[in-house]
Amino acid sequence: MDSPAASLPLSSSAPPPAAAPRHRRRRLSWLPLAALVPVLLISLPLVYVAVRTAQAGLADVLAELLRLRTLQLLINTVALGAGVTLLTIGIGLGVAWCVERTDLPLRNFWRVAAALPLVLPAFVASYAWASIGTLFQNLGGAIMVLTLTSYPLVYLPVAAALRSTDPGFEDISRSLGAGPWQTFRRALLPQLMPALGGGALLVLTHMFAEFGALAFLRVQTFTTAIFESYELHFDSATAAALSIVLMLLCLPAAWLEMRLRGQRRIAHVGRGAVRQPHLVRLRGWRLAGVLAAFALLGALSLGMPLGTLGYWLLTGSSAGGGHEALWPAIRGSITFATSGALLTSVLAIPLVLLAVRQRSKWAQAAERLPYIVHGLPGVVVALALVFLSLRLVPGIYQSLLVLLIAYAILYLPLAQSSLRGSIELLPPQIENVARSLGKRPLQVFFSIVLPNIAPGIAAALALMALQMVRELTATLMLAPTGTMTLATEVWSYTNDGEYAAAAPFAAMLVVLSIAPVWVFARRMLHPTR
Amino acid sequence: MSQVTAHGLRKAYGATEILRGVDLRLASGSVLALLGPSGCGKTTLLRLIAGFEPVDAGSIAFDGTVVASPSRFMPPERRSIGYVPQEGALFPHLTVEENIRYGLARGSDWRQRLQEVLALTGLTGLGERYPHELSGGQQQRVALARALAPKPSLMLLDEPFNALDLDLRHNLCEEVVQILRGTGATTILVTHDPVEAFSTADQVAVMQNGHIRQCASPEEVYWCPADATVARLTGSTIFLPGEARGTTLQCALGSLPLHEKAGTLQAAVQVMLRPEQVCWSDGTDGVAAQVLHRSFRGDHTVVSLQAGGLPLRLRMPTLQAPAHDTQGSVRVQGRCMAWPA
Question: Which residue of A has its CA nearest to B89?
């Protein structure tokens, strides 16, 4: 127990003697108190599900869950999750290997280009595919569209891992008589596993939480069903029962991701100059095949959605559609996303600091809790906040604060993982030195810690803002009446089949995504810069 | 400028006891070296004195005022300490000048103090640089200057020169302690290097397993170690069995005088010599010896001998080291230390 808070019970309650006025009894340090806030927020959805289950009674919940429709939802959700995850692993790994380990012409171009589909929010891509007809409005279509928008989440970490692996292992494997395929499988793949697994689990949890894309493509999963029973049938008991299943589905993924996260740090250890790996020569039909595959991937993941978007933009403006709602929606999106990102960072910093600086179990558990809740779909978080705010503090229902709290709960893990890297780089001795020079803990935080983690915070803010601009479910359910965002406008026009009217909002979403995606992709591909 | 006393200090991390009852008394303005192997608790002791961690039991007082005990705790920023950690830990986002200014009160005549400590630590002209633009030695000078600037009463140095290469380390360490003596600050230096401890400190406290085994002047710790462990931790040793008779003892290397510190011993003892007490001569006036092996090390040569049935390894100046297989004799200079066997 080395934490100031943990040793608090040792303090005597006797007042300090007057002879030593400089003495103070140990106070609760600000850090654990500050870390308590996000922990409490994170527990809200759990509290909600527990309360609703207790209210409805276990028997009713079971009856609700044992309906045929629940099975259908389960099959759809699992098929979608498994299908997209497996396909993104295949595409992400394949693209990363071709870009990093072959002599593909224009490698540097492909390296960046392969990450670009990230600028398309899944529901914007779905909007584009759905708008050309019903051919893709089914489970198969959803798997294809979501694979095309999600594979960069596997490609980027794997490409980064491929660059940082030591080719020495592969040389040794070859020298021990293993062929190229065996070497890939036994020497290279295990080194890529943390990155590959982390990316794949991220895709899987995204699939469980995905809402907009599936609604546009007319695929029913737990998320869309929960939203429907709440929004259309005002049946929050069914919504709560389905939320339980969805949470249970997310738990193993969250647990696995947490375990991988631990390994990933070890996987990143290893310094010194990494030698250039041998590049596989692509010639003749192999080169043609790879280039054709890359071209097809680009056409499907970027060309087709952007082309369709352009078509609807032109159609819309020739039809003389009014764009007067565009500016309020942009303002709404940017306001919500930036304030949400700021709030989430402010909440995440104490949590990360506590976990990095103090080895107590309490601190570790507090830092992990968000990851356990991670993967919780926006719809469940929103339901929980509607329910609890109406009952506990009706005054804040339908206020911006509730929406920002939902964003904070949803994106706290994202903030934590981006902040953790830069906070870990800061040696703890630095804070001790600052204390020894006469500064109080809070002064030390502002004068030493904050300036040094500022770049990490900026990156975290960009990444969170990107996610929040695209967030659909919680925004739909919680945004104050009368406000609009780009995402909600795309949603409502597309739902009414007004594809041309939705186009300018969808296009703005893509434009707003470009800068954060650029920052994110660069950081992933060039971790040292 | 601060007199430091510690009584019965205890500290554990979970189930691991790091300090198991440490007593310490340090005169104002003196230099104490905490010497011991890694894991002995020396850094933890320093951190408790600094106030970076609370004590489990016992107390620490500066000039008679208790600053740490289980019921009282003065935070580090009020203890008037200067702290120089292993890696310097310069604030990376601040220049040398800003680093040094960090502990100085705003509005004071910090400009003058800044120039003083820059000059004192030999950093004049480097004030505008950032830490990453400095060499390792310069970084440690900045860390020292930063700690010195607020005129602390107690300086705490935690193996501050570990990251530097050996030559630079010894020179810089002596220079730094010289500077500190000039300021009159009481100084505690944590080190695992006996040379560093001996060359700088007034008192050396040898630590092992969470205890201070001995705290005395460098000479006393070296020549009259309290036990075999302290002897090993403070330099090369030769151990051999012997038979004590009052103030002398009888062993394979002849009849040797005992240190007064050993007290009057009778019967079987364990004898401790420093290898440099054993002198080689080509003649026969001593215990007969034969050279078994020579290991050339540049400025010196390590000679392995067989003398009186004992294997001995002696460091000798290369030009005086006898050749392989030479027959000669050894004689012991000075007094030796012994403990009841």
Answer: A430
Angle CA A306–A308–A314, to nearest 5: 100
Instruction: Decide if B52 touches A, using CB distance below 8 A.
Output: yes
pLDDT in tens, chain B (341 residues): 689 999 999 999 888 999 999 999 999 999 999 999 988 999 999 999 998 889 999 999 999 999 999 999 998 888 999 999 887 788 888 899 999 988 888 777 888 899 989 998 888 889 999 988 888 888 988 999 999 998 999 999 998 887 777 777 888 888 888 889 988 899 999 999 999 999 999 999 999 999 999 999 999 999 999 999 999 999 999 999 999 888 889 999 989 999 888 877 778 899 999 999 999 988 888 899 999 999 999 989 999 999 988 899 999 998 888 988 889 999 999 999 999 87
| A9 found inside a domain | no
Chain pair A-B, CB pairs under 8 angstroms: 97
- Spatial contact of B176 and B138, defined as CB atoms under 8 Å apart: no
Contacts of A438 in chain B (CB under 8 A): 77-78, 103, 150
Q: Phi/psi at A258 (nearest 5 deg)?
A: -65, -40
Compute CA distances A143 → A79, B207, B227, whole Å. Answer: 9, 66, 75
DSSP-based three-state secondary structure for A254:
helix
Count of domains for chain A: 1
| Chain A contact for B239 (CB, 8 A cutoff) | no
Task: List the domains of chain B with CATH numbers.
Answer: 4-230 (3.40.50.300), 236-340 (2.40.50.140)
Q: Which two tokens stand for residue A424?
A: 């870990």
Q: Give the residue from B83, B85, B80, B141 showing the smallest Cα distance to B105.
A: B80
Report the C-alpha gap between B206 and B229 in whole angstroms: 9
Contact at CB, B86 and A10, closer than 8 angstroms: no
Query: Range of A68's domain?
Result: 24-262+286-525
CA distance B252 to B289: 12
Chain A interface includes B156 (CB < 8 A): yes
Measured N-to-C along each axis, helices A400-424 and A30-56 cross at an angle, to the nearest 10 degrees, of 130
Q: What is the CATH number of the domain that holds A238?
A: 1.10.3720.10
Which residue of chain A has the CA closest to B65?
A20
Torsion of the alpha carbons at A182, A183, A188 and A193, rounded to the nearest 10: 20
Q: Which of A4, A432, A448 sits opposite B85 (nearest CB)?
A: A432
Burial letters A334-372, b for 16+ CB under 10 A, else e? bebbebbbbbbbebbbbbbbbbbbbebebbeebbbbbbb
Range 60-79 of B in CB contact (< 8 A) with A: 65-67, 70-79
Q: Supply the pTM of this predicted model.
A: 0.74
CB contact under 8 A, B77 and A448: no
